[in-house]
Amino acid sequence: MQLLKEVNWLNQVAIYYWGDIDTHGFAILSQLRGYFPKVKSMLMDEATRKQSACGSAAIKFNSSGTFTVFKA
């Protein structure tokens, strides 16, 4: 994924990310947002996590819509 930060035109398009609702999926989202801050996630919110069978207790959603990933 580190190669993506070198692709300058990605700064000028909408980027959507849909990943696993676990610590790894959110770590990837966090890394991607480090390169492209306007990345929007899909189906990776607290309501979706609560409905999933594999919701991870290691992820805390903040009132601002951001999240914190706790490493085990």
Describe the protein.
The structure is a single chain. The chain is α+β, with helices and mostly antiparallel strands and 72 residues long. It has one domain. It has helices at 23-35, 46-51, and strands spanning 16-17, 40-41, 59-61, 67-69. The strands form two sheets. It has a two-stranded parallel sheet. A two-stranded antiparallel sheet has the order 3-4. α1 links the parallel β1 and β2.
Name the descriptors:
single chain, 72 residues, alpha+beta, two-stranded parallel ribbon, two-stranded antiparallel ribbon, 2 helices, 26% helix, 14% strand, elongated
Shape, per Cα inertia axes: elongated
Number of helices: 2
Low-confidence stretches: none
Q: Give the N-terminus to C-terminus distance in angstroms.
A: 23 Å
Please summarize the sheet with the most strands: 2 strands, parallel
Mean pLDDT equals 81
Encode the helix/strand succession as letters: EHEHEE
Structural class: alpha+beta
Spatial strand sequence of the major β-sheet: 1-2
C-alpha Rg, in Å? 13 Å
What's the number of extended β-strand segments? 4
Portion in strands: 5-15%
State the domain count. 1
